[in-house]
Specification:
This protein is mainly alpha-helical and 202 residues long. It has two domains: 1-28; 31-198, no CATH class. The protein has eleven helices and two strands; from the N terminus they run ααααααααβαααβ. It has a two-stranded parallel ribbon. It is globular and about 40 Å long. The termini are far apart.
Length: 202
């Protein structure tokens, strides 16, 4: 009887610890993996990415990739990803990223966030390196969620995911995060960031 009472008390204490605000703050993770980033956004990187993709109105993620890495490297990576995930899923990823950026800009405008003029030196390979750095978590893993959080905020990241889910469905949302994890890991390795780790969702 005493053992049962002690077990009950222990379970109650553990439940209180797990449910405490401190525990929740220490274990906040993004929906598709990786720790939530709640710091200041990297608005200069976001601005440069939007510019590289054709600007807010005409943004295309495929255009941004070519602008950063060159057509030859991008074509080789697309072929690699196509073998790995299939043509349809890669097309879903590219469309999903274009949609995500435009959705993020829409919510940023509503929130009164203004992107700074992108720095002239933040383009091409330099911008690609900035994206690698922005998406790399403290443990060295590159997460799409980390990049999206830093682009504007975790709150806007969640609003963008809600838009994707409502418009295209959960599978598109997951596939967009999944292939971006792999693609940016590949970019990181190609650019010499050998310590960057591949996310578990890839």
């Amino acid at each position: 009887m005493k053992n049962n009472t002690m077990m009950t008390i222990t379970l109650c204490i553990l439940t209180l610890i797990i449910a405490s605000p401190l525990a929740k703050a220490q274990n906040k993770t993004n929906w598709f993996g990786g720790d939530v980033y709640d710091g200041s956004p990297a608005l200069n990187v976001t601005s440069a990415l939007v510019k590289s993709g054709g600007g807010a109105t005409n943004f295309k993620f495929s255009t941004a990739l070519v602008s950063m890495l060159g057509e030859k490297i991008v074509n080789a990576e697309v072929q690699k990803l196509t073998k790995q995930y299939g043509k349809e899923n890669v097309a879903t990823f590219l469309t999903g990223m274009t949609f995500a950026v435009k959705s993020a800009l829409k919510h940023a405008t509503k929130a009164g966030i203004k992107l700074p003029a992108s720095a002239e030196n933040l383009k091409g390979i330099t911008l690609a390196k900035a994206l690698v750095t922005a998406g790399t978590a403290e443990d060295g893993t590159w997460w799409s969620g980390q990049l999206f959080d830093k682009a504007l905020s975790n709150q806007i990241h969640n609003l963008v995911m809600a838009d994707i889910e409502a418009t295209h469905g959960h599978s598109v949302d997951m596939m967009t995060h999944r292939i971006l994890n792999q693609a940016m890991y590949d970019v990181a390795q190609a650019l010499g960031y050998k310590d960057v780790k591949l996310a578990s969702l890839h």
